[in-house]
Amino acid sequence: xxxxxxxxxxxxxxxxxxxxxxxxxxxxxxxxxxxxxxxxxxxxxxxxxxxxxxxxxxxxxxxxxxxxxxxxxxxxxxxxxxxxxxxxxxxxxxxxxxxxxxxxxxxxxxxxxxxxxxxxxxxxxxxxxxxxxxxxxxxxxxxxxxxxxxxxxxxxxxxxxxxxxxxxxxxxxxxxxxxxxxxxxxxxxxxxxxxxxxxxxxxxxxxxxxxxxxxxxxxxxxxxxxxxxxxxxxxxxxxxxxxxxxxxxxxxxxxxxxxxxxxxxxxxxxxxxxxxxxxxxxxxxxxxxxxxxxxxxxxxxxxxxxxxxxxxxxxxxxxxxxxxxx
Length: 326
Description:
The chain has 326 residues and is of the alpha/beta class.
């Protein structure tokens, strides 16, 4: 099993990533960490708590950084004002688990140091928390197996023509992480923009009468009208089902200037020619397999529960009728 921590800024596709972890076969989730990103830290933290409640996830939860390392916050618009397409009311609850820590960086450090096995970090928001973890507790690097990141691109951006949102929000943090020496898997826009499900699949979610799947339908229907890619599950699925993707060793650098190149990720071809690499970059996706796995994550345990319930009812009716005939 891969012991993992999810650092995220939910976020519609962040929610989909959590669905994917819940349905994974090889991932053991140890903790959730919120970060400022798609929306404010207050929204991302509350979304984290509500999503954990929705999915029956009971792990440590920490509130992360409310601002980037040196920049002013920069929020997305495609996720709605509350971060989950305006549908938090569907999952809001007074019965959510309390936060384990008001400082998720310290929480992650303690989990990493207390673990007898190496930890994988899945980071699908701005890398503020992760950069602070690596700078504040450099001893943790030895106990981190890898960091699976959704961010950057080796082709185009989505905030500027060159810069992807997560790296644009906190380029200094991304630079620290990519220069840390820790193993990295990068799922950039060049692939995640293709990571979608069809309109028919989104509509199918609405036919399943469970709270989880109804919620998934609402947020993904809204999101699909604004953004083609369901980006964040890529950083989960590449760990649980690596055959869905192809990767290439690269040396990626992050630009921290203040113009259009702010947050741009780009290849250092000279270092690569000299045999130096700092990450594996996802270059291809099997879209059919991706869709199959994500749809299973959004529906399967609900369907299995409904099927089991149907069989129990059938058995109960059979026995009742059998004894009536007798």
